[in-house]
Amino acid sequence: MKEVKIALFGCGNIGTGVYKLIRNNCIKIMDAEGVSIVIKKILVRDLSKKRYADIDESLFTNKIEDILLDKEIDIVAEFIGGESPAKEYILKALNHKKTVVTANKEVIAKHFEALQEAARQNEVGLYYEASVGGGMPIIRAIHQSLQANRIQSVMGIINGTTNYILSKMAEEGREFEDVLSEAKELGYAEPDPTADIEGYDARYKLSILATLCFNKRVQINNILCEGITKITSVDIQYARELGYGVKLLAIAKDTQNSIEVRVHPTFIPINHPLYAVRDAFNAVYIKGDSVGELMFYGRGAGDMPTGSAIVSDIITASTNKHHYVKLVATPDEEIFEDNWLTEYYIRLSVFDKPGVLSKIAGIFAKYNVSITSVLQKARGDVTAPLIFVTHEAHEKAVLSAINEIKKCEYVNSVENLIRVEK
Fold first, then answer.
1. Is 205 a catalytic residue?
2. Which pLDDT score, from 0 to 100, does residue 352 have?
3. Of the listed 98, 205, 247, 253, which one is catalytic?
């Protein structure tokens, strides 16, 4: 029986979940994998803080040197979160020849090259399955099951908070701010939910997924990022009338000549598999040239699902004789597409005057944007809603048309623009 001693950086919800999993399933792990995992030290900031009662207090330390200089500790699992000091701690652990397991999507997305190089130089491992999709084994599938494929596209719901909010808005007809308040009360949203609702969390995860799928470094500044704060119950109602649902999607496509990567609210058809993903669940939809279409589905967050992925990485790291280090190409910036081709939903508030529709249609035609459907809704006293869905059009053409439409005397405001994926 192989005994592996590990340390934990942090002991919040996820760290406590990992501790429970290792303690509760240690015999199963030993029987199945032939390895005994022993937690030797836990790094915390405040030794006096009250924690999970079943953890032996002698395990806690507030000195990172107690872990870095301990030659018995082979693996460090990091749960601090955020960029700093997590990045510095992970690099220190790697440079002290300790394999690192982490769920930290921000650090992995922002510092992929530096971390991978530190792991390679020190001949240790860097494992980050839990950084995307919580308990879903999406990263391992890319590494170990889909190597024979050229992955052509990835499209996913990879933020549980926004999916919960949009699901509730669709099912109960409520507005964004109302559901966000509920999500905070239930613990689905952080007190400061900016990273989730503005799409930043999904952007970190898409950076990791696209980098691994396409074997080309996709940095976060290559990714268009729009959040869900402008989505209203009106947009969701119109989506339903048109045969769509609204999801915050992370989308990556590799045509070999260019890469497009974007995070934004998206209309998807009601018969698409991602439409049925509700509440705080995540799903990733992958298309490979050989395997075809695959979808991974599961809980994308939470102490136990995330802990499951982390413990799986710890077991893998414990049993691997040689650690796999992913090296990727650094493409020229020109390869990243910013003029993709897709359909668009556009909602306007227009003044109730004759000739409005023909005037706006003429502007779209000027920029070669073809209209597939128009909805004219009940008028108000002065203005009326006017909804367009386009055929496939280029992003820059649509944005140019919108900029001109905003200046049109017939238009009160452009209420929303949402991209459509099929």
1. yes
2. 85
3. 205
